[in-house]
Amino acid sequence: MSKLSHYIYFDKKTGQILAVTNEQDSSFEHGLNVSFDDVEDFLTGKSKFRDFLIGYKKNQDGMSQLAVVPASDQGFAFKNNVFEWIKETREQVECIVTWNGPGRRWEFQINPRFADYYDVVAAPKLTFFVTLEDDFDFLIRTIFINMQDLILSPEGVKIPFENKIESRIDKISISSKLVFKSYGLRILNG
Asked: 125-147, pLDDT tens digit by residue?
């Protein structure tokens, strides 16, 4: 096992892996310094670039960080830590989801402190899932938001409720594909 640093270069907009080397290469704009274990299968030919992406993944302490993730994990599996259950918080987070009961709508906003960074990163579409609070397999609705709309709109994106159960925040939860480092739910009751 090599102790040398290795680098994975990638397209920050799509997460597509462009190159894996043991040297820094200034011809690439975005790269990760990784261990040999992270790149061994690429270097030996066991893994193909097209089967993996660079995306956010939760580590054991609950923090999100850029890492090599299987392209198939960009699917819908909490067990693979590619989704975030968005919980109520008062902390400063990158993506703020507001459940607006009186307005009968969802409001999505990127914290302005992070908007410039996400102008360059992430998927073109964000996906949010509204599920039952006690059964994540029971999908109530899926919400798609264009990342560009979210970034360019200072007041965020507002999406009206589609059904009665959405107006019962005590009965539902919301989750999203892990694109941002932190998410938070704000609840407006009146």
From this structure: 888 999 998 787 899 999 999 88
DSSP 3-43: -S-EEEEE-TTT-BEEEEESS--TTSS-EEEE-HHHHHHHH
Instruction: Please report, for residues 7, 19, 112, 178, the alpha-carbon distance to residue 10 in angstroms, rounded to integers and kept in the order given.
Output: 10, 7, 25, 18
Kind of pairing between the strands at 135-146 and 183-188? unpaired
Per residue in 25-75, pLDDT (tens digit) is 999 988 899 888 889 999 888 999 888 888 777 677 766 778 888 876 554
Close Cβ partners of 55 (under 8 Å, ≥ 6 residues apart): 15, 66, 67, 69, 73, 74, 82, 178, 179
Amino acid at 123: A
Query: How is residue 13 written in tokens?
Result: 């907009």
Question: 92 is written with which tokens?
Answer: 């400063």
CB 20 within 8 A of CB 46: no
Count, residues in the chain: 190
Q: How far is CA 148 from each of CA 44, 158, 185, rounded to the nearest angstrom?
A: 38, 14, 21
Q: With contact defined as beta carbons under 8 Å apart, do 56 and 150 qualify?
A: no
